[in-house]
Amino acid sequence: MRGEETRQPSFVFLGPLEERIPADHPLRAVRKMTDQALCGLSPLFEDIYADRGRPSIPPEYLLRALLVQVLYAIPSERKLCEHLEFNLLFRWFVGLDLAEPVWHPTTFTQNRERLLAGEVAEAFFREVNKQAAAGRLLSREHFSLDGTLVEAAASLKSFRPKEEPAERKGGGGDPDGKNPDGEDPIPAEVVPGRAARDRNPSVDFHGERRRNDTHVSRTDPEALLAKHSAGEAARLIYAGHLLTENRNGLIVQAELSRATGTAERDAGLELMKKARKETKGRLTVAADKNYDTREFVRELRTMTVTPHVAQKEKHSAIDGRTTSRQGYAMSQRKRKLVEEAFGWMKTVGLLHKLRHRGRAKARWVFQFTAAAYNLVRMRSLLGVCVTG
Fold first, then answer.
1. What are the φ and ψ backbone dihedral angles of 306, each rounded to 5 degrees?
2. 3-state SS of the chain: helix, strand, coil percent to 5?
3. What would the pLDDT profile of 18-67 be if each residue is shown by its tens digit?
4. Beta strand pairing status for 305-309 and 283-287?
5. Do 98 and 91 form a contact (C-beta atoms < 8 A)?
6. Mean pLDDT throughout 118-142?
7. What are phi and psi of 325, to 5 degrees?
8. DSSP 3-state assignment of 94?
9. Is residue 384 predicted with pLDDT exceeding 80?
10. CA–CA separation, 159 vs 172, rounded Å?
């Protein structure tokens, strides 16, 4: 018998939102690990929020929402809030009841400075790794190190000479806002289309020699002009660095720095120093040929770290004492696990191009995305399935 279409919608929803989520849904395990990590951050939240005043949106809600944005590749916080309006799965994960209103997207902007000052992303990353260590998922002796270029939220048009005024008031006259004949400039609203032309002017920089010591981006001054290899187009970028353990490929250290010529090796040494403080005994670290320099290898050996670095064809700092061992070959196979982390963070985590300007915000997002990657990996490795 054919059922009849219901014309009158129901205005009453009975039952908790928990019952609408399948018992074997992957987000259940991620939610459980996330709640445990946020519970460990409760003392930090007490310190960065005032004791008096109007209650804010719970930071746990905001961080779970940002985690949903990373896991489901939602391109903006405005889109995220739109999804929270109608997506029951996202509402359940964040902790919003069906009757609770969704906050305005600018709430993230208003709270970001507070979360940045408290180093919340780095603290969340550490709490997630504590769970991985408790589950015996981390290797404490063997690591892999690598870096990548992350495109900044700035265009090449914004890369202008340092001595040039940051903003021209006249939109077509001299830096003082006057026209060439000395008269006051004509307001943009008087000339149709002029505002649009001034906002995105045509810039021809072909043939111009542009360098980081003479030019700076007006959009993101901390981004530097660089490229990965010869023949590749130069872009305004930051340098991302990951240190992964070789057992399961989980990220143990994450950092974002300015893309200087030696940033990859400098940041790599800093990450290894942090790992050295947490582990006793001799360590090994695998890396590609970019790390095969005498200074880098010497610093590692000073820290009692064996450098399993891929050899250059000429003038390599690694000799047969290292390459002849079986552990060296194993490290070279395992070091490719770090590329999986970079691939996930750039595709699913949408870090192929940053959405925030400034190293502080970009670093916050980079470390938070690294924590999200670990949560996804840990769910698979632990085989967690939670029903409540």
1. -80, 120
2. 45, 15, 45
3. 888 999 999 999 999 999 999 999 999 998 888 888 888 889 999 999 99
4. parallel
5. yes
6. 93
7. -85, 150
8. helix
9. no
10. 19
